[in-house]
Amino acid sequence: MRSTLPSRVRSRSSAPCLTSSVLSEALLGNLHDGAEEILRILQRSIRPAGSLSMADRDQVLDCLESMRDSARAMPVLTRIKLPSIDWAAWDVLGLAPRGMSRDWREAMGEVLEHLVPATLAELRRHRRSVS
Fold it and tell me: Has residue 131 got a pLDDT over 90?
C-alpha cells in the first residue's frame, strides 16, 4: 500500500514503528471488543458458560477466534509491553469442539471465566495508562 503522506513527512526510521503501532492498536481493539461481547453474552444468558445456547455458543466461538487470531498476530514489542496478558494461552487456544466433550466444555469454561476477563482487565488498564 502506498503512503498518502507527502514525502517530506515520511521517514524511513518512523514508518515501521508507526505501522507496528497502528497494527498493535487495531489488534488490541479486536481483543477488547471480543472480550466485551463475550461478557455481554454471558451476562444475558441464564445458562452457565459451559451450556450456552447454540446461537450464543457460536457467537462466543466467533469472538474467541477473532481474539485468538489477533493475539497471535500481535507484534512482539506489544506483547512485551503487556506481560500480564497470557499470550501463550491465546497462542495455543483450540476452538474446534471435539464432539462437545466434557473436557472441551470445561476448557472453554476456564477460558470464559478466567482468560477473557483477565485479558479485558489488562486491556482496560493499558487504555487508561495511555490516555
Answer: no
Q: For residue 20, is it within any domain?
A: no
**Is residue 45 a part of any domain in this protein?**
yes
Query: Containing domain of residue 118, as a range?
Result: 30-130
**Could you count the other beta carbons within 10 Å of the beta carbon of residue 51?**
12
CA distance 94 to 72: 12
What is the number of domains present in the chain?
1
In a domain, 24, yes or no: no
Answer whether residue 51 shows pLDDT above 90: no
Task: Report yes or no on 39 lying in a domain.
Answer: yes
The full DSSP string for the chain is ----S-TTT--TTTHHHHHHHHHHHHHHHHHHHHHHHHHHHHHH-SS-GGG--HHHHHHHHHHHHHHHHHHHHS-HHHHHH-TTS-HHHHHH-----STT-HHHHHHHHHIIIIIHHHHHHHHHHHHHHH-
Q: What mean pLDDT is reported for the chain?
A: 83
pTM (2 decimals)?
A: 0.81
Main-chain phi, psi angles of 21, to 5 degrees = -65, -45
